[in-house]
User: Fold this.
Amino acid sequence: MSALALPISIVALVDDDKIYQFTTERMLRRLDETITLLWFKNGKEAIDYLAEHHSNSAELPGVVILDINMPLMNGWEFLDHYQRIQESMSKPIEIYMMSSSIDERDMQRAREYACVTDYVEKPITTDTLRTLLHRQQ
Amino acid sequence: MSRTLQHSLEELLTSQYSEVVLLHGPKGVPHYVAGNIEQVFQVSLHTLLQKAFWEYLTPNDAQTASRSLHHCFKSGQAVPTYLAELQGSKKAVAITTHAIANEQREIVDLHTTIRDVTHAKQLRDEVLLLDNLVNETNSLARVGGWKVELATNSVYWSPQVRAIHEVPDSYVPTVENAIAFYHPEVRKELEDAIQTVVVDKNVRDLEFPFTTFKGNELWVRVIIKVEVHNGQPVAIFGAFQDITERKQREMEMELMISNLKKQNEQLEEFGSMVSHNLRSPLAGIQSLLSLLDDEVDADDKEQANKLIRHAVHQLDATIRELARSISIVDVPTASQELQ
Assistant:
């Protein structure tokens, strides 16, 4: 099990799927036991959190793992909202869209958002997570 | 006007006719003959004086001529000019007979003029053939011609244009009532096109919705051209065509394409949704299996197994739903939808 300290301390998972909440949390713990996972079941919960803590960099995640299909506010709507508040964030946040969709149009659409770092297909694995989080160094 | 038609008409105007004048009694045997005997009858003067002139005509025409002579001699009424054919030579002749009376007003003789009109008849037949061909082809293509004299604003419509408008024979078209056949929303476009054609002299080719005299809704194509004399526009004229069937087919095609696009979008949406609903639990199972590859405590193992079972149920439900929703539906045709 890796004990390498990750360059970030908070990761946010925006996904309504319990499986991903469970697997992401366990995989992150294996990578770094000190890391904190914030779980939001939809885009609205995540936006509310970011807006509330925008000035407090200690509370903001360094990475957001964002699903597309969610109730209340989907991944695209989250991105539209986030673009409006991005400037006010007190630290840079990397956003990864992670979805089970293999539709090329979704991938292309994700690339059109400047705030999206990459599009990653599910399933998530420990190696995928490690690669993503080490990019922050 | 086509060059052939123009040529035929000019020839008709300038043709020289061979003519024979006869004086004879009611039986038609001439006692006096003058004119181009040999050119018309192709016999000598002596031969022509031997028998009734109508005997040179085809049997039917001979009968008509003979009866006319007797009637003319009895009544004194002139026989209006009629056409006949000379037997054997196929020559066409125009025959006119007048009665000659003495001072006591008694009919004493008959005066007949026989004119060789073979060439003129051929030309007339050509013109009739052309006219018939133009009318037939215009009728097939549902196209006709129209003209407006700019000095007088007088309007001419060809028979096919009148047929498309469905106007009665007594209807007299004017510029104002002609424009009133078009739908109100396109009248200005038509009026503007007419005005600009007169100014820039470029041909306009337009398509408009249209209501006939009898109230039938059509689509028509209007081609407008200006006629110029000595640099001045003197008339506008052009073609007028009923394009309703073509327009109907175009609209059906557009509707069909639009329906196909819509169905394609729905199919893509359906495919994307199915793909997501199938891939999502599958990717979840793959993640959980990846987690279980490494060492995990008993609680996590139990939780992972529980989540795998849940994902498998989700997959099963999606596949059942998919099987249920795939059914053949009766899609209406474009023409049914248009109706």
Q: What stands out?
A: DSSP finds five helices and five strands in chain A.
